[in-house]
């Protein structure tokens, strides 16, 4: 068995070359930019008003100004503002040539076609959006490696962008093994359990930004496991086998990986839950073996696969490490790193009941994992410990 730290290092050393593709802007949400994006224009490409009011020359603010002309949003004709004049203007409209300031319509007095400014706090340039203030022509608008949020998509549309080069999310196959599994909704017979791993793993894969997910079920048959693994490796970038990774008489995953020419990087980690976790590669394909117990499978995913996916597609991580104060004591024997389902609030963390690897009810309540180091004997109340927040 290897340590948690060693396992993370080995996985990190086997990240394949990142792939990219061009997407229409409307399809790029949730992806990450794979190159710097430059603006082709000054945005806005003209100085414009940010208020309904009157455009003036600031030097004329203390004079009685003649109202001459009007500028609406969408005006395409330029207007030259003479000295001692003001121009009626509306939000988004181009600023007249010669004007440099906009006075809010509530801050003026108008009599017989003349305007008097009534704003002691007026400053030069107030309520004016200068040309190029949001983006400058030929300058970087968004850096490579930026996450394309809704606001980022809107910003790129606002500078005239129609497509973007992004990092491509890998395709993933889930292979679920086990004679005891039945689908939710079917009758549950003696010796059977409802299959839940595909539901939770498909959900968290989608949270990680994975859109191409194929799920397969196979019985505990070495030939069937091998055939399915061979097919999955040929069709997708990452294969996650669930169940059958231990050393029982009906655990055939490890033999199947050998038959398919997978190079084993490690098998078994000094941790609880999830000790029989497996990782191997075949070319640039990544193969993981998760324990069948749902809590163990999900814990291993959060610890190893989720961070890997974040690095591969440069997407914000769905986990975050921080420190917290334990509200209670929890004892363990040295030898394994323990990851406890827990709740975190206001800097304090509380381990939950039902830490067994098959128990998902407590995991459904958890918003973090407490980390009890390999050589520790656990923690005491008020100890500061490291936790992994689950987003």
UniProtKB/TrEMBL annotation:
Pathway(s) of this molecule: Cofactor biosynthesis; molybdopterin biosynthesis
E.C. number(s) listed in UniProt: 2.10.1.1
Catalysed reactions, as listed in the record: adenylyl-molybdopterin + molybdate = Mo-molybdopterin + AMP + H(+)
SUPFAM superfamilies documented for this protein: MoeA C-terminal domain-like, MoeA N-terminal region -like, Molybdenum cofactor biosynthesis proteins
Limits of the MoaB/Mog domain: 173-311
Keywords: Magnesium, Metal-binding, Molybdenum, Molybdenum cofactor biosynthesis, Transferase
SMART domains recorded: MoCF_biosynth
Gene3D superfamilies named among the record's database cross-references: MoaB/Mog-like domain, MoeA, C-terminal, domain IV, Molybdopterin biosynthesis moea protein, domain 2, Molybdopterin biosynthesis moea protein, domain 3
Essential cofactor(s): Mg(2+)
InterPro entries: MoaB/Mog-like_dom_sf, MoaB/Mog_dom, MoeA-like, MoeA_C_domain_IV, MoeA_C_domain_IV_sf, MoeA_linker/N, MoeA_linker/N_sf
Sequence similarity: Belongs to the MoeA family.
Function comment: Catalyzes the insertion of molybdate into adenylated molybdopterin with the concomitant release of AMP.
Protein's name according to its UniProt entry: Molybdopterin molybdenumtransferase
Source species of the chain: Chryseobacterium salviniae
């Amino acid at each position: 068995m290897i340590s948690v730290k060693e396992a993370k290092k080995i996985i990190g050393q086997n990240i394949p070359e990142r792939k990219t593709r061009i997407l229409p802007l409307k399809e790029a949400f949730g992806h990450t930019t794979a190159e710097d994006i430059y603006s082709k224009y000054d945005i806005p490409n003209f100085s414009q008003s940010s208020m309904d009011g009157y455009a003036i020359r600031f030097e004329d603010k203390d004079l009685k100004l003649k109202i001459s002309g009007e500028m609406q949003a969408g005006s395409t004709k330029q207007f030259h503002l003479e000295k001692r004049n003001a121009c009626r203007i509306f939000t988004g409209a181009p600023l007249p040539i010669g004007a440099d300031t906009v006075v809010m319509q509530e801050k003026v007095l108008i009599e017989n076609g003349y305007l008097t400014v009534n704003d002691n706090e007026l400053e030069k340039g107030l309520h004016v959006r200068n040309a190029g203030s949001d983006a400058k022509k030929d300058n970087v608008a968004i850096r490579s490696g930026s996450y394309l949020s809704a606001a980022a998509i809107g910003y790129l549309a606002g500078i005239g962008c129609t497509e973007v080069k992004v990092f491509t999310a890998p395709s993933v196959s889930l292979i679920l093994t086990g004679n005891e599994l039945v689908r939710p909704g079917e009758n549950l017979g003696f010796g059977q359990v409802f299959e839940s791993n595909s539901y939770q793993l498909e959900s968290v894969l989608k949270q990680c930004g994975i859109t191409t997910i194929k799920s397969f079920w196979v019985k505990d048959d070495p030939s069937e496991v091998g055939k399915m693994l061979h097919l999955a490796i040929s069709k997708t970038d990452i294969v996650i086998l669930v169940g059958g990774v231990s050393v029982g008489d009906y655990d055939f995953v490890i033999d199947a990986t050998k038959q398919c020419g997978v190079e084993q990087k490690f098998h078994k980690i000094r941790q609880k839950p999830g000790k029989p976790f497996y990782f191997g590669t075949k070319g640039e394909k990544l193969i993981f073996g998760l324990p069948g117990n749902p809590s163990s499978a999900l814990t291993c995913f959060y610890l190893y696969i989720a961070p890997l996916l974040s690095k591969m597609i440069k997407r914000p991580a769905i986990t975050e490490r921080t420190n917290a104060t334990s509200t209670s004591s929890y004892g363990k024997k040295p030898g394994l790193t323990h990851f406890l389902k827990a709740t975190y609030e206001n800097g304090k963390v509380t381990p939950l009941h039902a830490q067994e690897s098959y128990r998902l009810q407590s995991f459904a309540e958890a918003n973090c994992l407490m980390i009890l180091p390999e050589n520790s004997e656990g923690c005491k109340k008020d100890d500061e410990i490291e936790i992994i927040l689950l987003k």
